[in-house]
């Protein structure tokens, strides 16, 4: 509760950052905001960069949020949302979101102000080593995969996340350091499909027999969906038979293929803090 100002803010400290299930393993810190009153997933109002979730606050657009790191601008001026997604909670001291009645220093956005405070070193040497792995063998098919993608088994994937941090004092009570690094390597197969009807291989053969000199049929054979062999294209959904002029019972169906959808992300943070009797100076470098 803020007793000296009217703005409404929520803060999440180390205890929450180390136990909130939807932000661990690099899932994105803005998922924390969804637990705050007045904040929802922006759904089709998103269309912007994200740090996990795309959020809409108090009914305003998903692009109406100001993103900061240590009180400094972190906005993507092209797509909106955060310019740099600081998503590893082990790098973060506190996550703050202000949702209404902003103080005088805020004025860029009308939805919310998200501020992520990075960790600093202390007089005590401390660190962490952490990791997680997800594998398709431990997953079941989702309803969407069963009903709409027609899958009979989970597409193969392996998601490995590994990181570590260390912090301490170079000069006790004066100069502190903090460093962290992580990597996420995701190897997976992704199913791409459409229900838009196109001639199946059998349907193309039927058309070729009906119209042996047709340039359109030859183009379909050489450049159509089934001419692209990547992902082993197969018919999707029920086979429909269509009649064309002088060509009957042409097999038509949607098409589905499975392609690699691999993902790599590497993050690094370095921070130095210098404390005097009157001032606190720091330098910070973040790479993602």
> How many beta-strand runs?
14
* Strand content bin: over 45%
N-end to C-end Cα span = 34 Å
- The helix fraction, in percent, is under 10%
Structural class: mainly beta
Helix and strand element order: EHEEEEEEEHEEHHEEEE
What is the molecular shape? Answer: elongated
- Contiguous low-pLDDT stretches (5 residues minimum) are none
How many individual helices? Answer: 4
The largest β sheet comes out as:
7 strands, antiparallel
Q: From the alpha carbons, calculate the radius of gyration and give it in angstroms.
A: 26 Å
Taking all residues together, what is the mean pLDDT? 91
Structural notes for this entry:
- 10% of the residues lie in helices and 45% in strands.
- With 288 residues, the protein is mainly β.
- The strands form 3 sheets. Strands 8, 9, 10, 11, 12, 13 and 14 form a 7-stranded antiparallel sheet that branches. The protein has a 5-stranded mixed sheet with strand order 1-6-7-4-5.
- β9 (157-171) and β10 (175-199) form a beta hairpin.
- The longest helix is centred in the C-terminal third of the chain and has 10 residues, at 201-210.
Concise synopsis of the structure shown:
The protein has 288 residues and is mostly beta strands.
Question: Could you list some keywords that capture this structure?
Answer:
288 residues, mainly beta, seven-stranded antiparallel beta sheet, five-stranded mixed beta sheet, 4 helices, 10% helix
Topology of this structure?
Elements (H helix, E strand, L loop, with lengths): L7 E5 L1 H4 L21 E3 L13 E3 L7 E5 L2 E2 L18 E9 L11 E7 L7 E10 L7 H5 L9 E15 L3 E25 L1 H10 L4 H9 L10 E11 L2 E14 L2 E13 L4 E8 L1
């Amino acid at each position: 509760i803020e007793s000296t100002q009217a703005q409404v803010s929520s803060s999440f400290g180390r205890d929450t950052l180390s136990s909130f299930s939807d932000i661990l393993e690099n899932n994105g810190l803005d998922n924390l905001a969804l637990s705050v009153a007045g904040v929802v997933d922006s759904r089709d109002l998103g269309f912007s960069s994200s740090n996990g979730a795309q959020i809409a606050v108090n009914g305003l657009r998903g692009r109406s949020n100001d993103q900061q790191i240590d009180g400094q601008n972190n906005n993507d001026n092209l797509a909106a949302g955060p310019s740099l997604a600081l998503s590893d909670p082990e790098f973060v001291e506190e996550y703050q979101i202000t949702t209404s009645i902003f103080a005088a220093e805020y004025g860029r956005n009308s939805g919310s102000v998200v501020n992520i405070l990075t960790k600093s070193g202390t007089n005590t040497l401390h660190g962490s080593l952490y990791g997680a792995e997800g594998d398709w063998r431990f997953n079941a098919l989702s309803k969407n995969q069963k009903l709409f993608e027609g899958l009979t088994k989970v597409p193969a994937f392996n998601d490995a996340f590994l990181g570590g941090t260390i912090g301490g004092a170079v000069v006790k009570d004066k100069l502190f350091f903090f460093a962290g690094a992580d990597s996420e390597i995701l190897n997976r197969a992704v199913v791409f499909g459409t229900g838009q009807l196109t001639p199946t291989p059998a349907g193309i053969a039927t058309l070729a027999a009906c119209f042996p000199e047709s340039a359109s049929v030859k183009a379909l054979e050489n450049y159509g969906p089934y001419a692209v062999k990547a992902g082993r294209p197969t018919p999707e959904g029920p086979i429909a038979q269509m009649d064309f002029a002088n060509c009957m019972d042409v097999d038509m169906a949607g098409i589905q293929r499975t392609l690699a959808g691999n993902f790599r992300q590497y993050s690094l943070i370095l921070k130095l803090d210098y404390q005097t009797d009157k001032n606190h100076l720091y330098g910070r470098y973040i790479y993602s």
